[in-house]
Amino acid sequence: MNLLLHLYSVLTGLLSLSEQNAKLAKNEVRIEELQTLNQAQASELKSLKTWTNVTENQVVVVKLLIPVGQVAFSASLLASGSGTLGPINAHTPLVFKHVVSNIGKAYSPHTGIFTAPVRGAYHFEFYIVAHGGSHASAAVLVKNGEHIFIAAERQTNGYGTAANGATLLLEAGDVVFLRLWQNNVIYDNENHHSSFSGHLLFPM
């Protein structure tokens, strides 16, 4: 009887050991599967990071290729014919009506005012003509009511010209225009001597 019990105990132990070995083998297989899966996920993550970097670089290139704030204009004083404006006993805004170019539509030929569409550095130039007479010719570049630079000429006979320009840092919505200096005159004709131009150098 004792022998049978001993044999039963031995068989039971062998079966238990066999089951444990089977479970261990399954666990080892599962570990290998998890390791393989982990490697696959790591490879996929690396590919995703590479794709993301490429996409970000493409976005940067696209942004560089897209023009930002294309703004430029050029206009002369009279739309047609010839004539002299002034003298007037007060500083008077000048309206340059003959528009040659107005890229971005930032200049108004109805008011003579340029309105900055974006923050940036802008360059402006202006030319005026004096036709011989008793009055001088002078115009001043104005930014938001502030006098920046003036151009002036006095010519008793024939024609005289004056010019000036400035590069200005403008905020979006800032305005720039020209004023005829008080008691001065400005002349223009079909040759478009007196003109006002400006363009965006670069946004900031």
From TrEMBL:
Residues 1-16 form the signal peptide. Residues 66-204 form the C1q domain. InterPro entries: C1q_dom (IPR001073), Cerebellin_Synaptic_Org (IPR050822), Tumour_necrosis_fac-like_dom (IPR008983). It comes from the Eukaryota. It is found in: Secreted. The keyword Hydrolase does not apply. Keywords: Secreted, Signal. GO terms for cellular component: extracellular region. PANTHER family: CEREBELLIN 13-RELATED (PTHR22923:SF102), CEREBELLIN-RELATED (PTHR22923). This is Cerebellin 10. It comes from Neogobius melanostomus.
